[in-house]
Amino acid sequence: MRGRTTSTSSHTSACPIPSLARTSTGQFRRLPPKKKLDFSAVELLRVDEGLCVQCMHVGPYDDEPATVDAMRSFAAEQGYAPDFSESRLHHEIYLSDPRKCAPEKLKTVVRHPIKSM
Known about the structure:
Domain GyrI-like small molecule binding: 42-115
InterPro entries: GyrI-like (IPR029442), Reg_factor_effector_dom_sf (IPR011256)
Protein name: GyrI-like small molecule binding domain protein
CATH class: Alpha Beta
Region (Disordered): 1-28
Helix content: 10-25%
Pfam families: GyrI-like
Shape: extended
Protein backbone atom coordinates (compact mmCIF):
# COMPACT_ATOMS: atom_id res chain seq x y z
CA MET A 1 0.00 0.00 0.00
CA ARG A 2 1.31 3.47 -0.71
CA GLY A 3 -0.12 6.91 -0.42
CA ARG A 4 1.00 10.30 -1.63
CA THR A 5 0.27 13.51 0.19
CA THR A 6 0.13 15.64 -2.98
CA SER A 7 0.38 15.06 -6.70
CA THR A 8 3.88 16.58 -6.68
CA SER A 9 5.13 14.66 -3.65
CA SER A 10 8.01 12.25 -4.09
CA HIS A 11 7.43 10.67 -0.69
CA THR A 12 5.77 7.28 -0.49
CA SER A 13 4.55 5.60 2.68
CA ALA A 14 4.31 1.83 2.59
CA CYS A 15 3.29 -0.96 4.92
CA PRO A 16 3.08 -4.72 4.52
CA ILE A 17 -0.35 -6.31 4.14
CA PRO A 18 -0.69 -9.28 6.55
CA SER A 19 -1.99 -12.57 5.19
CA LEU A 20 -5.02 -12.40 7.52
CA ALA A 21 -6.24 -9.46 5.43
CA ARG A 22 -7.22 -11.93 2.71
CA THR A 23 -10.07 -14.43 2.59
CA SER A 24 -9.53 -18.10 1.72
CA THR A 25 -10.15 -17.20 -1.95
CA GLY A 26 -7.43 -14.55 -1.91
CA GLN A 27 -9.76 -11.55 -1.91
CA PHE A 28 -9.19 -8.71 0.53
CA ARG A 29 -11.50 -8.60 3.52
CA ARG A 30 -13.72 -5.54 3.80
CA LEU A 31 -14.13 -4.10 7.26
CA PRO A 32 -16.52 -1.40 8.35
CA PRO A 33 -14.71 1.94 8.65
CA LYS A 34 -14.05 3.08 12.21
CA LYS A 35 -13.19 6.64 11.26
CA LYS A 36 -14.05 8.84 8.34
CA LEU A 37 -10.67 8.69 6.60
CA ASP A 38 -9.96 9.43 2.96
CA PHE A 39 -8.25 6.45 1.34
CA SER A 40 -8.78 7.64 -2.24
CA ALA A 41 -5.01 8.03 -2.80
CA VAL A 42 -4.16 4.57 -1.47
CA GLU A 43 -3.09 1.93 -3.94
CA LEU A 44 -1.92 -1.64 -3.57
CA LEU A 45 1.37 -2.59 -5.12
CA ARG A 46 3.66 -5.58 -5.03
CA VAL A 47 7.33 -4.80 -4.56
CA ASP A 48 10.10 -7.06 -5.80
CA GLU A 49 13.17 -5.74 -4.03
CA GLY A 50 15.72 -7.38 -6.29
CA LEU A 51 19.39 -6.88 -5.49
CA CYS A 52 19.88 -4.26 -2.76
CA VAL A 53 22.43 -2.84 -0.37
CA GLN A 54 21.12 -1.96 3.06
CA CYS A 55 22.44 -0.58 6.31
CA MET A 56 21.17 -0.08 9.84
CA HIS A 57 21.35 3.66 10.48
CA VAL A 58 21.43 4.50 14.19
CA GLY A 59 20.93 8.15 15.04
CA PRO A 60 18.96 11.20 13.95
CA TYR A 61 17.37 11.24 10.52
CA ASP A 62 19.44 14.33 9.68
CA ASP A 63 22.61 12.19 9.90
CA GLU A 64 21.35 9.68 7.34
CA PRO A 65 23.27 11.16 4.36
CA ALA A 66 26.55 9.90 5.88
CA THR A 67 25.08 6.38 6.07
CA VAL A 68 23.93 6.62 2.44
CA ASP A 69 27.43 7.74 1.39
CA ALA A 70 28.95 4.76 3.22
CA MET A 71 26.48 2.41 1.49
CA ARG A 72 27.37 3.82 -1.94
CA SER A 73 31.09 3.41 -1.23
CA PHE A 74 30.62 -0.15 0.02
CA ALA A 75 28.53 -1.12 -3.01
CA ALA A 76 31.09 0.38 -5.42
CA GLU A 77 33.95 -1.47 -3.67
CA GLN A 78 32.00 -4.70 -4.17
CA GLY A 79 31.44 -3.98 -7.89
CA TYR A 80 27.88 -2.62 -7.75
CA ALA A 81 26.25 0.59 -8.93
CA PRO A 82 22.96 2.25 -7.92
CA ASP A 83 19.93 0.98 -9.85
CA PHE A 84 17.16 3.50 -9.19
CA SER A 85 14.06 3.53 -11.38
CA GLU A 86 10.32 4.16 -11.15
CA SER A 87 9.88 0.80 -9.44
CA ARG A 88 13.23 0.54 -7.63
CA LEU A 89 13.46 3.25 -5.02
CA HIS A 90 15.39 4.36 -1.95
CA HIS A 91 13.41 3.33 1.05
CA GLU A 92 13.61 3.32 4.79
CA ILE A 93 12.18 0.99 7.40
CA TYR A 94 11.66 2.76 10.70
CA LEU A 95 12.28 0.45 13.63
CA SER A 96 12.01 3.11 16.34
CA ASP A 97 9.19 5.46 17.24
CA PRO A 98 10.59 9.01 17.18
CA ARG A 99 7.93 10.04 19.70
CA LYS A 100 9.34 7.59 22.27
CA CYS A 101 13.03 7.37 21.41
CA ALA A 102 15.94 9.79 21.75
CA PRO A 103 17.19 10.96 18.32
CA GLU A 104 20.63 9.40 18.84
CA LYS A 105 18.99 5.99 19.42
CA LEU A 106 16.63 5.96 16.42
CA LYS A 107 17.08 2.84 14.27
CA THR A 108 16.30 2.95 10.55
CA VAL A 109 17.04 0.35 7.88
CA VAL A 110 18.12 2.23 4.73
CA ARG A 111 17.88 0.24 1.49
CA HIS A 112 19.02 1.07 -2.06
CA PRO A 113 18.63 -0.99 -5.24
CA ILE A 114 21.91 -1.95 -6.93
CA LYS A 115 23.17 -3.76 -10.04
CA SER A 116 26.49 -5.23 -11.14
CA MET A 117 28.84 -2.80 -12.83
